[in-house]
């Protein structure tokens, strides 16, 4: 069974940077969409960025220009590099694998989820 494990979260000050990793085990990468979502306390889980098997990436408005999603199939890992972090970026960040290679932000489109890694940005 495929398993996704996130790491790299932490506490930083506003303007700081973090790089999240999502390593998958229990299966080889095929042509699927991979994505990062986040959820703040009391909030809904929202999409941050997606990447397909061709490395075509898309970003939510809140992430565009500051975050970079990437995929390294050689080490079965997806990344989210986050720069110029803001307090509103504080959330639990989750990685997910989609049902196919069509990327979007519908939660129902993703069938495998990690447990999350916490990102806290202080002002």
What can you see in these coordinates?
The chain is mainly β. Helix content is 0%, strand content 50%. Strands 2, 4, 5, 6, 9, 10 and 11 form a seven-stranded mixed beta sheet that branches. A four-stranded antiparallel beta sheet has the order 1-3-8-7, with no helix packed on it. Strand 7 (67-72) and strand 8 (77-82) form a beta hairpin. It is globular and about 40 Å long. The termini are far apart.
Structural key phrases:
11 strands; single chain; globular; four-stranded antiparallel β-sheet; mainly beta; 123 residues; seven-stranded mixed β-sheet
Kindly summarize this structure in a few lines.
The chain is mainly beta. It is built from no helices and eleven strands. It has strands at residues 3-7, 10-13, 18-25, 34-39, 46-51, 57-59, 67-72, 77-82, 91-98, 110-113, 117-122.
Bulk shape: globular
Oligomer: single chain
**Structural class by sheet pairing and helices:** mainly beta
- What order do the helices and strands follow? EEEEEEEEEEE
> How many beta strands in the DSSP annotation?
11
Instruction: Determine the mean pLDDT.
Output: 96
Binned, the helix content reads under 10%
Structure annotation, total helices: 0
Sheet-strand content, in percent, reads over 45%
Instruction: Give the radius of gyration.
Output: 13 Å
Spans of at least 5 consecutive residues whose pLDDT stays below 50 are none
Distance between the termini: 40 Å
Major pleated sheet: 7 strands, mixed
Give the SSE layout.
Elements: E1 3-7, E2 10-13, E3 18-25, E4 34-39, E5 46-51, E6 57-59, E7 67-72, E8 77-82, E9 91-98, E10 110-113, E11 117-122
Parallel strand pairs: 2-11
Antiparallel strand pairs: 1-3, 3-8, 4-5, 4-9, 5-6, 7-8, 9-10, 9-11
